[in-house]
């Protein structure tokens, strides 16, 4: 399937990164390592997000090198050579020729030659940007290449003096999504929304949590999204109060809610949706009361996602509505301001209202600039995901509330006058959910 991101955009990203690099510097970005699952079986390969962002090249055993001002080409890829015998077993390889022709790199070499070629490219550059500290093996390889240069100083070689974490420059670029990135993320959101609808409709048949997980995977795969962006959470009853519950093995019981937090990954871009709904198709009075609070909090938070507001505004908006709701329902006492100041809400709402979203589900980008929350700007993508969780053993509240866990999560992109919700195709009002489940 051709990528929804044009080849030219990857070149633009490399150019923009190089514009931010010092002129006498070099950047070295490795592909993800392959990981053994067991014995001779590997985990399905997932490209490193930084490498993917800059190259669109999906193979392992590759290294991207950016050398501003290099005469024979600034963007260089080291990758596996074509090999008919190997390709017969493991599939197509682009080879250095394909890296140039198909992926638009300026120059390319076999990865087997990197130890001979790369030290010569680093020589004379004073600063090296690379993902410092991310992978011990790669840190060691960079130092090995530098040692080769150091061993030649008496012959006049100039080893680099500065090693800088690449993420400071690169992750700020990744924070602002282009129109084509938003297109991919919207498509991922659409597929995930359809998957949530299918799981909701399946729930009334009963079975186990994993039966709903199967429906999610079915829809993701049916649309060519071959993997989830993170392990799916399907928690029924009190399991909905376990934030990272992934066992997904309990039987679905009439009278319980199910919390599903799941999203597909498409072209390495994540989607991340949570919906909470009753197994029976009808909310009980207590479930509905708490659900309406979380939904109001989510609307308030989404309303606060706009330029002019900062990162924490949506969280503050959600927190106020959730805390007021807990007081109104008798789960907390006192005033909203006091409950927020004393963090009395924390046993019921212990996480943040969202995170950046992109190539990583918890995407890169700073949340603060110095001591100040980051201003929201067009192109930033984030989740909005307030929740309320009444622990099954919380004896400070009436028994009728215990074991109810609710979260509602959508993916949004900041626009010039507000935000666009990418995942609205899955219902979230009580009436909409009950109608869909009755079908
Ligand atoms: N599914 C992970 C999260 O919502 O942050
Ligand atoms: Mn989620
Ligand atoms: Mn999330």
Q: Say how many strands there are.
A: 21
The CATH superfamily of the largest domain bears the name Creatinase/methionine aminopeptidase superfamily
Alpha-carbon distance between the two ends: 34 Å
Uncertain segments are none
Task: Please bin the fraction of helical residues.
Answer: 25-40%
Bound molecules: glycine, manganese (II) ion
How many structural domains are formed by the residues?
2
Mean pLDDT: 98
> Proportion of β residues?
15-25%
By DSSP (H or I, 4+ residues per run), the number of helices equals 13
Q: How does the overall form come out from the CA principal axes? A: elongated
Structural class: alpha+beta
CATH architecture of the largest domain: Alpha-Beta Complex
**CATH fold description of the largest domain:** Creatine Amidinohydrolase
Strand order within the widest beta sheet? 6-5-4-1-7-8
Please provide a written account of the structure.
This protein has 439 residues and is of the alpha+beta class. It has 2 domains: 7-174, 3-Layer(aba) Sandwich (Creatine Amidinohydrolase, Chain A, domain 1), CATH 3.40.350; 176-438, Creatinase/methionine aminopeptidase superfamily (Creatine Amidinohydrolase, Alpha-Beta Complex). Helices cover 36% and strands 18% of the residues. A 6-stranded mixed sheet has the order 6-5-4-1-7-8, with helices on both faces. It is elongated, with a radius of gyration of 25 Å. The model has no long low-confidence stretch (mean pLDDT 98). Residues 272, 355, 383, 385, 409 line the site of one manganese (II) ion.
């Amino acid at each position: 399937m051709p990528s929804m991101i044009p080849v030219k955009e990857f070149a633009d990203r490399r150019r923009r990164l190089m514009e931010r690099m010092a002129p006498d510097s070099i950047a070295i970005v490795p592909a993800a390592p392959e990981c053994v699952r067991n014995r001779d079986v590997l985990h399905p390969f997932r490209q490193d997000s930084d490498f993917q962002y800059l190259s669109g090249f999906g193979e392992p055993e590759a290294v991207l090198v950016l050398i501003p001002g290099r005469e024979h080409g600034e963007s260089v890829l080291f990758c596996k050579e074509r090999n008919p015998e190997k390709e017969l077993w493991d599939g197509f390889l682009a080879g250095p020729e394909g890296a140039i022709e198909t992926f638009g790199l300026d120059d390319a070499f076999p990865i087997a030659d990197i130890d001979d070629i790369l030290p010569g490219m680093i020589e004379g550059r004073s600063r090296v940007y690379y993902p410092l500290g991310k992978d011990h093996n790669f840190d060691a390889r960079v130092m090995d290449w530098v040692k080769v240069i150091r061993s030649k100083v008496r012959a006049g070689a100039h080893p680099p003096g500065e090693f800088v974490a690449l993420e400071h420059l690169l992750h700020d670029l990744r924070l602002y999504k282009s129109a084509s990135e938003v297109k991919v993320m919207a498509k991922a959101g659409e597929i995930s929304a359809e998957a949530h609808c299918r799981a909701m409709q399946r729930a009334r048949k009963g079975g186990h949590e994993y039966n709903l997980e199967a429906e999610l995977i079915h829809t993701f795969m049916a649309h060519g999204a071959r993997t989830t962006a993170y392990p799916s959470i399907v928690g029924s009853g009190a399991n909905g109060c376990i934030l990272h519950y992934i066992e997904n093995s309990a039987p679905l019981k009439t009278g319980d809610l199910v919390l599903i937090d799941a999203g597909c990954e498409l072209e390495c871009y994540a989607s991340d949706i949570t919906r909470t709904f009753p197994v029976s198709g009808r909310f009980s009075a207590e479930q509905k009361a708490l659900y309406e609070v979380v939904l109001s909090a989510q609307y308030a938070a989404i309303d606060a996602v706009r330029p002019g507001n900062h990162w924490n505004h949506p969280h503050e908006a959600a927190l106020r509505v959730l805390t007021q709701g807990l007081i109104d329902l008798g789960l907390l006492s006192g005033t909203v301001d006091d409950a927020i100041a004393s963090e009395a809400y924390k046993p019921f709402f212990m996480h943040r209202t969202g995170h950046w979203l992109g190539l990583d589900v918890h995407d890169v980008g700073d949340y603060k600039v110095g001591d100040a929350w980051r201003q929201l700007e067009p192109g930033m993508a984030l989740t909005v995901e307030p929740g309320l969780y009444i622990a099954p053993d919380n004896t400070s509240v009436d028994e009728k509330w215990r074991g109810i866990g609710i979260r509602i999560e959508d993916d949004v992109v900041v626009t010039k006058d507000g935000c666009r919700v990418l995942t609205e195709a899955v219902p979230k009002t009580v009436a909409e959910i009950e109608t869909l489940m009755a079908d």
